[in-house]
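Q: What does the assembled structure look like for these inputs?
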Amino acid sequence: MFPGKTITQLKSLIDEKKVSASEVKEYFLKRIKKYNAKLNVFLTLDEKSEGGVPLAVKDNFCTKGLRTTASSKVLDSFIPPYESTVTTRLKKEKLLIIGKTNMDAWAHGSSTETSDYGPTKNPWDITRSPGGSSGGSAASVSAYLTPGGIGSETAGSIRQPASWSGVVGLKPTYGRVSRFGVIAMGSSLDCPGPLTLNTEDAAYLLSIIAGHDPLDATSSPLPTENYMDEMKKRKSYTIGISEDYFEGLDPDVAKAIEKSIEVYKKIGFKTKKVKLLSPNYAISVYTIIQRAEVSSNLARYDGIRYGNDRTTFGTEAKRRVMLGTYTLSHGYYDAFYKKAQKVRTLIINDFKRVFNEVNFVIGTPTPITALKLGEFAKYPFFGELMDKFNEPAAMAGIPAISIPVGLDRSGLPIGMQLMGNYFRESDILNASYQFEQETDYFSVIKKGIENYKD
Amino acid sequence: MTKKILSKEEILHLAHLARLTLTDEEILKYQEQFGETIDYIKNLGELDTKNVPPTNSVVDLKNVTFEDGVENLIGLTTNEALQNAKKIKGNEFIVDRIMQ
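A:
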């Protein structure tokens, strides 16, 4: 009935009364029921609520009256008594939260395999991971179980699954989107953002969820922009190329990124070589700071006020809490935590310096395409190494996008990443939109959906 | 195999601080994995940070507070606060005895 229609297209159809909101809802519910058993995308569905275009929301956003688990058995039966700001704003715009999607438990992971409810399957190849931690929301969009989704990032959890599942994923500037009601992982890093079928939808969802929220003290009071309008202005930018961000790429991924740079040159963008700190330092800063914040954030789960007791934590959550407890403990605090905070300053200054010269730094969210399920568990530190190109932007708090730029030799999607300056989401969306207009690379998304017939 | 930098007793002490119970298998696994992780993060020592201030937050905000007298948008009713608790008595949470 609506093959591959985007959020904004469906919204127009509903607004013009060409279809009813309930027809749209029934259409997607039917698709969800047809494919959810195969892909394990949704943990909880809301079949009763009415609204407009349905969205998939990661299960770490509190939804009043609708079970919210963060994919952990600790919160197996948790019914939030309040609503996150992001979902409040989406509902106000008449978007329908049709269900809550699977993720790595507490968002600890890059594959959804640490979920206590089993992994989500990559719609492109169900023996592979969709990426994570927002893997459920990415897979939902990729298989068109919903025309859009909401995920969250601590370091790569939107961009990496967007890349592996072949959709668009935007990580906004830290503080641009409220964290109120999002189950906290790394509080100085966490950042909600959209997963969509095209750039316009990313701009549309961002325009709804971005903006100051008095309920989140770290939310920025800076004004938002009209992302939909800014996106469509024909602008010319300079793209920075840093060698360290091309190290160790799979040859197909490297080729696709190089081809993307050529596309940008063709439409009049300039390129410039820049030198950034090696992403290998961001891995260490991230590992220390994120574990420390995890150990502090997960301390609240006492099983008294809500949830099950601490014996229900999975092994990955325990590993992170333990390491965070260690690096924050007496005698190690300065050597690990404080040192990491100082290097974080260096990473921030490094990006600020480079963004005086260029508008973006180009690269990929992941050096390789989707891995087989089970691969991550073999190497416990592997997830961090795999996320090395996502961690610098996360530590600096700058915005970045992943967009599909083709398929590798096995027919799996490849993502290209643009990192931008603080609060320059409109520039990132603009460059992404121009790329989308210029190429047929986004046909990757349509190709993915074709495997999931009504 | 990477070296174990923490003894079993140290792992158990950390688990106690974090109020976690670990299986013997987990203790052994964490001993090995922490060695691997801590070996990796030593690369930060390559960077000179002597005169660099630490970053707590990337947003440049100070002393964010509510104005006195504004509407409380985040309060819960007693029922809402209790609705997810496993053990309650009247309007109170039941907690384990601390002093024996």
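Residues 292 and 403 of chain A are 31 Å apart (CA to CA).
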